[in-house]
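Whether sequence alone determines local backbone shape is best considered at the level of individual chains. The sequence in question and its structure tokens are set out directly beneath this paragraph.

===
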Amino acid sequence: MTTAPEGAAVLEGLYIGRERALFEKAVALSQKRNLIFLDRAPKKVVVNLDEREFKSTWIGNKAVYRTRMAIADGGELVILAPGVRKFGEDPAIDALIRKYGYVGKLGVLAAYRGNQDLKDNLSAAAHLIHGSSDGRFGITYAVEHLTRAEVEGVGFRYAALSEVRKRYDPARLAEGWNVLPDGEEIFYIGNPAIGLWTDRTKFEAT
């Protein structure tokens, strides 16, 4: 599925069957339509989360795993999250995220080995891993329904949404590269659900 300029969803292909060739065709089309290649890695990426869709970091962390292959080492991901008011989509997952946090692959694996509640919920463990940058870049959640203590308690940086929007206003940003009046360059994404962004040099090296 892709999104047309007028916002309508467009079916690009439909592959049904057990043959390997069908799978390979589907992969090839998905790479063509859904991978967004950048010729250089941005130091700062700003992602906007539609408040009608993104109510938790469980969903909102698409902003992390859809951009992590694009962001430069030592860079920053700023997530504008007006609708995010919790971490998990249900109380049990929310409690696990609050308890263990987005501490990277090694941190989550260590917690998994020593805690039965995480062993009993592999989906939470996997989410905590792919919702982290593994320390490669910073992640700032700009929110209005979570406190600083809550956001920092799970391993993210906190920012007040009202303040961040003064600088990174979605209404004034274009999709892709933007240069602000003071010269700062950012890469803006209005909806992280529509693609997978990657630095072309990193992708070609894998």
